[in-house]
Amino acid sequence: MADTVQDAELVRLAQAGDAKAFEALVVKYQRRIARHVARYVKAAGDVEDVVQETFIRAYRGLASFRGDSAFYSWLYRIATNTALTHLQREPGEVLLGDDAPEERADAFEPGVSDAEDPERTLFAKQIAEAVQRALAKLQPELAEALMLYEVDGKPYAEIAGMLGIPIGTVRTRIFRAREFIARRLEPVLEPQRPRRW
Amino acid sequence: MSLNVSLLLDSQLALGEVKPALDVIVADPRLRDRYTVYGLVGDVLRGNSTPDDGFSTRIFERMRREGVRIEKDFDPSKDG
User: Fold this and answer.
1) In chain B, what are the domains?
2) A173 near B CB under 8 A
3) Residues A48, A105 within the same domain
4) What is the pTM of this model?
């Protein structure tokens, strides 16, 4: 519910001309949409094209978003249609019903052109290792809150109930956990910083 | 202020807090970067590691290059 309300506010701001509000939505959902598109489209380069097209179509059609459904659900449908249109135009692509679309989606990493780009693959591995190292040094109560949210998908209110702490404490613990990890990731991520939002 | 980055990412801000927080974040390269990196951390924890080599930036560059605008009568759910 929180996603729906806040995303709707970001859409409202974007509709009123604040392009940065739409960019915040793109950054937030880009990887989720990419993994969804990868269920339909095989080549990593084509996935990126379809994701770009999805967000462009979403922005062009933003006036038609009424907030009757969650923004992500709306975006998801656009991504599905865009991917299917791509498949109709690219006869060489593999359609739904392919042997293991879920596995293909799980393996997709935006910006990574699969194993043919060992440098990117190595960089992704370095990031994953740095996050794991930071996680191992994180205070247990911070790690617990972050993992419940990010991995188990628990809402803040439920985490507060599970841990017997106020929701404000959940907010600060998740933030402090992210910041702790982000600081330890800085040396690894620095080379690509200029290319990020 | 990075707390608001975390709260914006998780949709935890109150309605009236969204615009002021967004304005501060987009104006500060460090906070903008945190917004991306916090999201990246979550993806890595879920087993979806990625170098994040400018994926979103390329989307924005294409939108600017093509002069993409909000169109009153465009229905994005129709075939493209």
Assistant:
1) 2-65 (1.10.10)
2) no
3) yes
4) 0.87
